[in-house]
Design brief:
By secondary structure, the protein is of the alpha/beta class. It contains twelve helices and eleven strands. The radius of gyration is 18 Å and the shape is globular.
Length: about 300
């Protein structure tokens, strides 16, 4: 039973003072690399697919890869939809084998966000899935949607409290000053806002825009209430750069499996490093045992 939703996972992590790393895979190899890395260091893992990855491969292949790679894993692994906006896509994720989904209606007025989130919440909970939802607008580029710095806005703590009273969320995403993609200046993380929202909601929070934040900043965010840290852009760069660098280092070697092998090891190195940095190393098997106990 390594296939779990992240509701129990993130509450266990939060009570233990650490966070679970959430990576956006781009193909089968990156999914295999993150599961192997998690097993090697005994860490829980959130494997989260973007909408464009689903559109590229289809629901069924991604769900089957997840089940094949993580079905008998000794550590808990979640298959999560990241920044879902299309209700038909979300519905099919629920039907196909995802264990949690995110509804991101943060670009809508608050009352409309509540209404859309309720639709997804009802669908997901009926299927035994946990959900992530978001308020405020996080800056940067996500799913080819650009939110300029001047258009990004922080979450309102009163709205956050109301939101989390309406829904028993697996994790809550609130705009707290981070941004998707690499930072082009010093990130202005609102630590006081993280603390206030968590204290008022007691719901584990997601740290979006984890790529480019220094270890001290991430550690402080985790200590204040973040139990899920997203890493996407970092993986994209490792995926492309490691492949290209192999050819630079071995210009006459055209054996594809050697290139793929180098890329695979580079991804694993990233996964191990981030899971360790966020405090998940050595926690996987114990967490899975606790989830199994709670599920009896």
């Amino acid at each position: 039973m390594a296939l779990v939703n992240f509701k129990q996972m993130l509450r266990i992590a939060r009570s233990g003072g650490y966070a679970v790393a959430a990576f956006n895979p781009v193909d089968y190899a990156s999914m295999r690399a993150m599961v192997e890395a998690a097993e090697e260091i005994d860490a829980p893992l959130i494997m989260q697919t973007s909408a464009k990855t689903i559109r590229y491969y289809g629901h069924e292949p991604l769900a089957s890869w997840y089940k094949q790679l993580a079905g008998e894993s000794p550590v808990p692994v979640t298959l999560h939809l990241d920044h879902g906006k299309d209700l038909d896509m979300i519905k099919k994720c629920i039907e196909t084998g995802w264990t949690s989904v995110m509804i991101d209606a943060s670009d809508r007025p608050f009352e409309e966000n509540l209404e859309i989130t309720k639709q997804v919440y009802d669908m997901a909970t009926a299927g035994g899935l946990a959900i992530e939802a978001e308020i405020g607008e996080i800056g940067g580029v996500e799913e080819d949607i650009i939110v300029a710095e001047e258009d990004a806005h922080l979450a309102n703590p009163d709205e956050a409290e109301r939101f989390c009273k309406e829904f028993d969320l697996g994790v809550f995403a609130a705009a707290i000053g981070t941004a998707h993609g690499y930072y082009h200046g010093e990130p202005k993380v609102a630590f006081d806002l993280i603390e206030e929202i968590y204290q008022r909601t007691q719901t584990p929070m997601a740290l979006h825009g984890g790529t480019g934040l220094d270890e001290e900043t991430i550690a402080r965010c985790i200590s204040l209430g973040c139990a899920k840290v997203n890493i996407s852009t970092n993986l994209k760069h490792i995926f492309v750069d490691s492949f290209a660098q192999y050819h630079v280092d071995h210009p006459k070697d055209y054996e594809p499996l050697k290139v793929l092998g180098a890329q695979f090891e580079a991804m694993k190195e990233l996964f191990r490093a981030k899971m360790t940095e966020f405090g998940g190393a050595g926690k996987g098997a114990a967490m899975l045992g606790e989830i199994q106990k709670q599920s009896v």
